Amino acid sequence: MGEPVREPAVAGMFYPADRDELLGMIDAFLKDAQTVVDGEIGGLIAPHAGYIYSGPVAAWSFKQLEGKTYPYVVVIAPSHFEYFQGASVFDGRSYETPLGEIPVAREWVDRLVQQSPRIRKSDDGHRLLGGGRGEHALEVELPFLQRVLNSFELIPVVMAEQDWSTAEALARAIAEVFRDQKVLIVASSDLSHYYPYETAYRLDEKLLRLVEAYRYEEILEQVAVREVEACGAGPIVAAMCACKLLGFPRAKVLKYATSGDVPYGEKSQVVGYMAAALLR
Asked: What is the distance between the alpha carbons of residues 219 and 214, in angstroms, rounded to a whole number?
């Protein structure tokens, strides 16, 4: 039996399954985004909804990578379908999208999981479930990365337990393992869910301010009391903490919009999307 390949779970649903159609959609989103960051980038925050809704915002994050190279990319995503303790790192051969396979950096996965018992090799949060379901939050970031980076090895991380202890343990592990390597850390998260348009903007503005002020320690506290919402709050906190430890202590929000901002969006119940960069 060959080494496991994580096949696409949401191609044809969250984004096109046809290679050329997918490339055309991504290129159109990137053309409409702007490059607004000059300095070195250690991390990104990007949304993970269907491309017709969140793609225009996600493109603002990935646009900043054009012309840059990263040998390793850590993508940290929340789990929407499975609950498990800590963080799960996929140890198969690759993640696959319609744009091809991305090799998993298995040596670095081994080093990462050795840093903390809260991080383990597992297919939890990665496997395809019954009925063709599978976690989308990590997968949808990958075609954008494949388009803007020539080649890279992937460290795919899914968090089901989004508490401070897990986020900090993951951040410290990433910072320790990659302290002498060039690495990009991508946090996958949408923001508020299913509020009226104006309410979503007011609610998400609080989170945008916490990110720009680099007050990541407060994000999970604010989520707990429902002052802010983010389905990937744990990944955001882990990525920001890791980037700070690696010498990227600045954040810039690049774009915010909601599902109600696209032409076919419904404004009575929207989802919020943020693009942000974590900088030297």
From this structure: 10
Whether the pTM exceeds 0.85: the reply is yes
pLDDT digits (tens, 9 = 90+) for 187-225: 999 999 999 999 999 999 999 999 999 999 999 999 999
| Cα–Cα nearest to 136, from 27, 232, 64 | 232
Residue 268 CB burial class (10 angstroms; 0-12, 13-18, ≥19): exposed
User: For the domain 5-279, what is the CATH code?
Assistant: 3.40.830.10
Is residue 1 over pLDDT 50?
no
Segment 229-243, tens digit of pLDDT: 999 999 999 999 999
CA 125, 73, 22, 253 dihedral sign is positive
Q: How far apart are CA 143 and CA 98, in angstroms?
A: 8
From CA 48, how far away is CA 235, in angstroms rounded? 12
